[in-house]
Amino acid sequence: MMIKLIADSGSTKCAWRLISSDGEQRDVITTGINPFFRTTEGIYDELLEKLIPVIGVKVDEIFFYGSGIINEEKADVIRRALSPLFPGARLFFYSDVVAASRALFGKGTGLACILGTGSNVCLYNGTEVVSAISPLGFILGDECSGAVLGRKLLGDYFKQVMPPVLRTEFEKRYGLSREEALQRVYKMERPNLFLASFTPFLSAFPESEYARQLIRSSLAEFFERNVTKIPDYQQYAIGFVGSVAYYFREFVEETCENYGLTCVAIRKEPMEALVGYHMQSK
């Protein structure tokens, strides 16, 4: 019996799915495992406590997809945690854009986009990523990600750009002082998650022209600074993975039409499609 373990990790959470050839499946959620922000020791300790009791140690293959896996050095941060936990398992590491690509297109070709806490885009040929634009993180890039939308919301709130009615609602919901916001963004760990936590505010006011314009302009930035930089981008189908794309799908589909692209799928998370991909793979 072949036992596989699939991990899909963003900065916020890591979803684990064990699948066996006899049809058994088990799920576990742990904290996001991004090697830019986590240590091997911290990863090992958390997985020993939260993953192993549910999954066990008998695993033949592990397929780890995650943000921050940009090279072997970063993959090794996670590999050194997994190897002693799952002795004998074969380990495979892929970036989050490969996860999105396989979830959206399987073994086909297309533009795979991520719009979640972070953002990204690549051209996938059914086997590998053949063209990609560096996301650069929420300070230099990550256009239309949850972190950047939250950053814009906070900036507009404190600079009184946000309409008064929404500023009042924002204050009621979050009660956030300028000093606290600056501390969380500039002094504490994982400011991207803090900023992304404000993005649902936009969903609460679907008829607000301010909210709609912020989403539309941010999507336009994502397309202009990322999608259109892929050579011959209009020749390919496009798909999206991530909570921002999922909850603002009306605007995503509208923007795709504006750029002459056909949106074939929008998935909140890639896991179910990844399970199908790996169950079919020998």
Structure description:
This protein has 282 residues and is an alpha/beta fold. Among the domains are: 3-96 and 271-280, 2-Layer Sandwich (Nucleotidyltransferase, domain 5), CATH 3.30.420; 140-215, Transcription Termination Factor Rho, Rna-binding Domain, Chain A, Domain 1 (Orthogonal Bundle). 45% of the residues lie in helices and 21% in strands. It is built from 14 helices and 10 strands. The strands form 2 sheets. Strands 3-2-1-4-5 form a 5-stranded mixed β-sheet, sandwiched between helices. β1 (3-9) and β2 form a beta hairpin. α4 (96-105) crosses α14 (271-280). The model has no long low-confidence stretch (mean pLDDT 92).
Short description:
The protein has helices at residues 40-50, 52-55, 72-85, 96-105, 137-140, 146-158, 164-174, 178-186, 191-196, 200-203, 209-225, 243-247, 249-258, 271-280; strands at 3-9, 13-20, 25-31, 61-66, 90-95, 110-115, 119-124, 129-133, 238-241, 263-267.
Give the helix/strand layout:
Elements: E1 3-9, E2 13-20, E3 25-31, H1 40-50, H2 52-55, E4 61-66, H3 72-85, E5 90-95, H4 96-105, E6 110-115, E7 119-124, E8 129-133, H5 137-140, H6 146-158, H7 164-174, H8 178-186, H9 191-196, H10 200-203, H11 209-225, E9 238-241, H12 243-247, H13 249-258, E10 263-267, H14 271-280
Parallel strand pairs: 1-4, 4-5, 6-9, 9-10
Antiparallel strand pairs: 1-2, 2-3, 6-7, 7-8
Helix pairs in contact: 1-3, 4-14
CATH topology-level fold name of the domain at 3-96 and 271-280: Nucleotidyltransferase, domain 5
Strand order of the largest sheet: 3-2-1-4-5
Largest sheet: 5 strands, mixed
Backbone shape? globular
CATH homologous superfamily designation of the domain at 3-96 and 271-280: ATPase, nucleotide binding domain
